[in-house]
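Wait, mind explaining this?

_____
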Amino acid sequence: QRRGALFGMPGGSGSRKMAAGDIGELLVPHMPTIRVPRSGDRVYKNECAFSYDSPNSEGGLYVCMNTFLAFGREHVERHFRKTGQSVYMHLKRHVREKVRGASGGALPKRRNSKIFLDLDTDDDLNSDDYEYEDEAKLVIFPDHYEIALPNIEELPALVTIACDAVLSSKSPYRKQDPDTWENELPVSKYANNLTQLDNGVRIPPSGWKCARCDLRENLWLNLTDGSVLCGKWFFDSSGGNGHALEHYRDMGYPLAVKLGTITPDGADVYSFQEEEPVLDPHLAKHLAHFGIDMLHMHGTENGLRDNDIKPRVSEWEVIQETGTKLKPMYGPGYTGLKNLGNSCYLSSVMQAIFSIPEFQRAYVGNLPRIFDYSPLDPTQDFNTQMTKLGHGLLSGQYSKPPVKSELIEQVMKEEHKPQQNGISPRMFKAFVSKSHPEFSSNRQQDAQEFFLHLVNLVERNRIGSENPSDVFRFLVEERIQCCQTRKVRYTERVDYLMQLPVAMEAATNKDELIAYELTRREAEANRRPLPELVRAKIPFSACLQAFSEPENVDDFWSSALQAKSAGVKTSRFASFPEYLVVQIKKFTFGLDWVPKKFDVSIDMPDLLDINHLRARGLQPGEEELPDISPPIVIPDDSKDRLMNQLIDPSDIDESSVMQLAEMGFPLEACRKAVYFTGNMGAEVAFNWIIVHMEEPDFAEPLTMPGYGGAASAGASVFGATGLDNQPPEEIVAIITSMGFHRNQAVQALRATNNNLERALDWIFSHPEFEEDSDFVIEMENNANANIISEAKPEGPRVKDGSGMYELFAFISHMGTSTMSGHYVCHIKKEGRWVIYNDHRVCASERPPKDLGYMYFYHRVPR
């Protein structure tokens, strides 16, 4: 009966009330588990760890007095069973209609001393008509004894102090101002006295490329010497090769800014020395040193602000379907996400993701198992938070139609029970953006970049063998041809989205565009109102054609000529994904770093057939380029590290170890990988892991070899009867990690008595090396030949099929840059289009399919 009264079960007649003398005695067994929040403890008073229940919910919220995690009525029992924690603070906010005065109006306003919870008020309620009252009490499980608060006279002093501390603590997601909700980033200690080299470096507004590789995305500008280098790399080789971090380790220059994020309001700045995103108060001056005028990047070609330009206003109206009476939608699958301040990029992507059945099954379909086996702190578990978000969006629990007007008076006579519409993804955003230099900021972000970030998190936190992001994965075949010898090379890579260029030259209304441009310039010169926008109309077929056309390869090294030459590259689909994500490349930079957006209309098809882009592989009559790697220039410091790769275990680079461990590899395996690759960085160590991960002692602790630091001495350890000429596997791994073939490494080491430096010289002086049949036979008969097969990684997981697709969702962007503006999402559900605009979910009347930024297609049978 006591449990029934508290949890709304039949037969309950009220929770047990304790006599004054019994309270202290009742709490004695639980005193060791009651804690006073310390500095740094996060006290969750606003949101359940497993759901979006809050003190506003009908069942209130239960805060554990030991962990300070909060749980709704449906989930508090799970936490009690798992942890044995018995004492919880129950928080509940009551909403009642205000007492009317004699004239029928509400009584005069007065300070409400009954509100002590730091909660958002219900925007749907008129504060002049309703009043709030907060209630707190201790509840002791499993018998659900209740102790009303405050109760200073009868509670032990420690319990009173703990309760006061919990009630007065600030929410970990408390808003700082209307546009932000997270704590401000720290100011870097290097910003005030940052050294900038006077080396004449000037950064162009576009065309960036990593100075150490060919990557053109995720690039960071070092604010000391102006080097442009790629950022952190991920386990699937996406993101970057970590050259920006390597540059810091080599040179010690602490601060870098991400190219593409620079706006007048700031940019994403990272401190390698402090190992966190930071603020640079002198960023404008530091950028100006390299020719970047940050403070004028808000200006457009006519010097007007974004909000002053009529075409942009029109874009906002069209995409949000302003001026059209839109019918609100409620129920499962029609739940909105409240904007936390520039979080619409996250909301739009997550709405599209959880409209996909594979993601629904992987998370919401496994909800009981994921919740039951969640860690002790579920707020820091990706799968738990994904499941929580998916259930919040799909259950309909937080998307209910308003109560009929005739029932409102009857309800208000007793107590208002507000219907929660929309959920606030505070906990989810805090977790997925943690330690990310861009998404942890309060600025607007690129929805496409967040999509790839989310895919990376799904990959790293897969549930068993199930990986829902496989539905996006496909193989790209890249064909590179040497223009001088006509020889070709075919390679494959994994990708998750198709990037389509905007073929501006194919606009079908060029005459209108020319006339509009002339009229616009004349209006600007005479300070008259601008004419109505004429938007370029681009055929989708032209964008698809531009995607498939050959492109020049900068700095192409021809292995046939063993020299740099002209080369062209074409890309085709080696496999077609189950779900195809198409990004329209609308954003670029003009002169003086002014961000530009191609404001175009593209006739995106509902049915898309790309079967003609299927890769065909090597064709008859084509001759392959020789499989020879280009010469590698090894810096002296790197060569010194190579020569001394058998480092002291105490000198192992722990940052590289942790970077690998974050990908899910065993910690001891990561330590061995960094040790045996001579502290050359996480990327080289990752290659070592791929080679050795199938070995039975892969995860065993690091054991020291029985030989000295000289690489040439390794043969005496690894040698055995019949294998005295087999090179040490660790030295082979170092050479292969530099891009050389394993057989090249083995042959070079054998020819130089396993001396690493001489072996590298041997490779460079024998570019004509080819494996002969005797060598291959010898290797196959070798006792260690199984290493060759183990070195080949398992093929990528792809779900190949037809290249015929149907559009089911698209994300649109309004504004001049991905770093500003607003995102909305349209999804086709139950045969009709629905617009998701933050917390507002409505039936779409005119879905602007021609103005989208990202399009989601699902495969259909031909």
